[in-house]
């Protein structure tokens, strides 16, 4: 179809298109699953070379059709983000002759616009007056023609991208310029909206938007440039109408009207270009003569979405005048406090009951020589907690501005900026104090790297307080901190946590944390969060538990939940708002805690009292980033995913006399090193011992502009020649570290295989080497937090390769490198060969002319090669033309199959992948194809028919698909199959996937040899066996020796799997022969044998 036109005329959908003269007729219909509603062909014109079609669909008649078929409008999934229950696709059907069946076969195709010619007109809402149905004709993001019924398009449906190229913030006005791109429709008009976060008040201003001059005529992406100018005086009325005057966030949105559709766009302004973000400064301000105060708007870009927002505060005249008059004098003010040893402590502007309060109290009582101040708002109800100790400073006061600039140390429980009087960039830049992150709870459950990662430009800390070695390792591994930046001291509040001063009461503390996605009453009322807790609190079994064991039920509301207290007024529990009672007092006096993900659960567990976790929405709460912990195995309490399990756990605890099980005591103790009352002594000592940093080094290591410039240089043509020269000079003249080992696996993409097993065994045995791992993440730090992580091809990569005594790799280091003379290189390789390699290949596909010369040079660097069998040794020597030492001791990577806790490990891996116990797991791990490339990268087409799998095996099986590491193409699994087909290509360790699986499906991959160690069935899906054999060649006859059926299509594959009960009768003998030939040396502790044979020489 060409020249498609999609429009609405009165209440009719109109589709027009042209087509080269086809030998068949078209019909069009609205379709959802098996339901079809036909268009009428109202015009057809035949021209010399093409035909013109015009179809019409009456939406009034379609409304009648829907009224007669009400089941089409039944909604079963309220969270249907794909609109599958509301949309009908416009589908074309024609009949095509099929030679095989000698009949005309119907072909259905969704009507899709072509970039070569399309037109969308008047795609406005249509309301059927009789039924009340609302129809929204629209274009899907991929260009398909569709119709929504009784559902609005999302505010961002036709939005594609945005950028801010320039932003200037002055005291009296704001200027923004940038680009925005919409889908399919040009912008007719636009506004910029300022709206209070979490509220409804807003103000809008017009935006100048023009088409980009470089716009292509028929491109689906419609590019525009915009210009915004807003005067501060025009914002004053809106700001004065806001009830909250401090710490309020103002978000900024685009409101766009589009041409040829009445669907509008609403999305946040953001995505600044680097320089726009880096040089963002200034603030908007206005003095109110009437109130004698200053209104201030300080711009910033959000962490999550990189969108523009403003911090809104109101300052008294004296404080802000002081700030304004000293904008260019902060350095001199800072020097005046240098000799005073000023410490500023705080939590949030209104809080004083957590670690900040406890540490301030400790300083005032035990260190009078230190000039310690606490900053808190005048009107805070918690101010009374700190006032008895003196030196309490009003937040936003003149003194607050002054002390921050003069402080030697700033100690806070959140971002340091939460206790700054302003986030004005110029002011903050002049604060030279050391920043101490006291934390507000033991972390680990939810991934906090997006908020407290060292790489974040808006979070700065010189010392990160933790409570255990486990927590410290997470801060180093996942948050990017150095060893000397993290202190294991315990939290400040633990001083009173372990104080035996509050009697135990017969009460259960129910204390859930908040959900960020709940932003107003409507969302709260409709949320699973509200429904689950409402059902739990009113559950008669909970009441029975309370009566049977004579315990009071306390429901403690999160601060963000306090606007919704009324929803729980009639619940048969005691409702408490955080702030009305000290949370630590509640923890100490309660017998049991029921929570979800709140960090206070760790405090409770440290008292060795039982905990129940109610995690009904774990996946949504944790989000895309995984927890820092293995939740199912490391949390110190029972985990329930439904109400029945919660009740069961509570009764179990009651039957156990409210004692914590020994296993959970052990788990709790792993999160705390010191169960005593002296954390503040340790925190104080750690602060005193913060090492001095070289500010120049810090600037070059952390400044965003420096990193950006290096990133540009890294992508330039000059980088690799420079690195080669750097490596050459260092390898010749640098000093070799005799205790240093560089490990790499799968070209630095995965932490797996024999290098991993060798490394972990050496760590377990305390061998005392300096370990360097080439990785894109910090996974190796789980085994040893002192390991140095470097990125592949970075300057450090060349530095460590040039100066290390040992290299360990399962593939090759860059082939252009020659190892230093003193360096010894252990090549573990990455599998037993089936397909012919390198010098044994008659013809090499997918590689350039210099390939063999390069890999031969790489082979010449090896000091020893690991082999699992005499067969492998023979093929390695032939393929690589290698005559050096071979350690024929078995594969270290297969040690994992001989570990004592294999069943437990299997359960954990399956739980991590959300696979239920009753499902059988198929691991599909094909190799790559040499002749399937796009540019310089290998690609691969998926050859598994998902629909056939679903139909044949979907009820009882889960399919894991693992692409080869060198394959660059992205596997896409349609939403409808994701419940039992999982892409595990990025899972860090394939050996773990083998453990979790019940059978393997592969083709020519060496994974078959490793899998033989599991004694589980194997199936060989070799759809291109003859072609592959001709292209690569095999070292043995696969059809003759394969320990499982060889199939060439999906149907036969799944048929063979369905007959799994016959597998061992048919292939048991072949399996044994296969193991004897290819895995005779695999077994426990191969890693230890290999490393001792190599490193102890």
Automatic annotation (TrEMBL):
Keywords: Cell membrane, Membrane, Teichoic acid biosynthesis, Transferase. It is found in: Cell membrane. GO terms for molecular function: CDP-glycerol glycerophosphotransferase activity. Transmembrane segments: none annotated. Pfam families: Glyphos_transf, TarS_C1. Its main location: membrane. This is Glycerophosphotransferase. It comes from Tetragenococcus halophilus (strain DSM 20338 / JCM 20259 / NCIMB 9735 / NBRC 12172).
